[in-house]
Amino acid sequence: MAAKQKKQTSQENPTPNWHAKAKEAQAYGSVIEDMPHYLDAKVRAKMVGHLNQLLADSIVLRDLYKKSHWQVSGPTFYQLHLLFDKHFGEQLEVVDTIAERIQLLGGVTIAMGGDVSKLTKIPAPPVGREEVPVMISRLLQAHKIVMQECAKISEAADDAGDQGTNDLVVSDVLRPNELQSWFIGQHLVDAPLVHTK
């Protein structure tokens, strides 16, 4: 028994091997060539390129909502603080859904902040706090960019016979973005609290 214990101990090393290095398993921009999918690799590669653009812009939009949630102030603080956080959570789901589609098509998702910032079409906000109307305007512009990308991808997916991507960008990305932009856009309507004659 003691010999067996000694043998196990001599083979085990309690120090984590955290210096592991290897080549990339799959390069960004490539797709798995031979996989059980009805779309051919060229079509999947094209869709993955479009979806990575949408993913980058959606990640930035998601993060704009968290920045706005943290930095909002003023008389509408409570309502917007909660609304921005709700929209952040919804965008988190949108981002995950897009990323899963990219992987399903045999591609590699863009993921890291530095890489996302190089690809996104959404202008970067200042590090500091902005006034509420500017925050909302920035969010609305980001939504517009995402929705325009959805329309472009939907058309390309339809032309390529990629019903899965078409359905995803319309149902899971475009519609939530339309609804969110409507909700926050209403905060910029110049309407008096009381109508007088």
Automatic annotation (TrEMBL):
It comes from the Bacteria. Residues 50-192 form the Ferritin/DPS domain. The lineage of its organism: Bacteria, Pseudomonadati, Acidobacteriota, Terriglobia, Terriglobales. Residues 1-20 are annotated as: Disordered. InterPro entries: DPS_DNA-bd, DPS_DNA-bd_CS, Ferritin-like, Ferritin-like_SF, Ferritin_DPS_dom. This is Starvation-inducible DNA-binding protein. PROSITE patterns: DPS_1 (PS00818). It holds the Pfam family Ferritin. Belongs to the Dps family. It comes from Granulicella pectinivorans. Keywords: DNA-binding.
